[in-house]
Automatic annotation (TrEMBL):
Homology family: Belongs to the NusB family.
A Gene Ontology biological process term: transcription antitermination
Tagged with keyword RNA-binding: yes
Keywords: RNA-binding, Transcription, Transcription antitermination, Transcription regulation
GO terms under cellular component: cytosol
Example of a GO MF term: RNA binding
Listed name of the protein: Unannotated protein
Pfam families for this protein: NusB
Domain NusB/RsmB/TIM44 residue range list: 5-126
Metal-binding recorded as keyword: no
């Protein structure tokens, strides 16, 4: 498994825990001992980016996740989408298809049977419309 995928999964752990506990993911990251944090730099970048752009990210998920309210969507899927959208929309050094592929692979590993296809559909719609977004 690549270092970036490990970092994405670790960031997903923090985002999921933050959702469940009603906390900030960056606060949870800061509360962990350094030896517990592998790929800490990229994890922190992902968490900071999701927090900074959370309103826009969640607005896009709500708009393009047809048939799902944010509150009804599984927390894992919601947070996989948050990380992928951060990478697609605000990480120019990363190809969009890599972000989508990583999100799909993570969903296949740790979410429901239907999640990978659903996440692929949402991200695909957003990538098509990406040039029209005012970010």
């Amino acid at each position: 498994m690549s270092a970036r995928r490990k970092a994405r999964k670790r960031a997903l752990d923090f985002l999921y825990e933050a959702d469940i506990r009603g906390a900030r993911a960056l606060d949870l990251l800061g509360s962990r001992p350094a030896e517990e944090l592998s790929q800490g730099t990229y994890v922190a970048e992902l968490l900071s980016g999701v927090e900074e752009h959370r309103i826009k990210i969640d607005e896009l998920i709500t708009t393009y996740a047809q048939g799902w309210d944010m509150d009804r969507m599984p927390a894992i899927d919601r947070n996989i989408l948050r990380i992928a959208l951060l990478e697609i929309l605000w990480r120019d050094e990363l190809d969009d298809q890599i972000a989508v592929s990583e999100a799909i692979e993570i969903a296949k590993e740790i979410s429901t049977d239907d999640s990978a296809n659903y996440i692929n559909g949402v991200l695909g719609r957003i990538i098509i419309l990406k040039p029209s977004f005012a970010l």
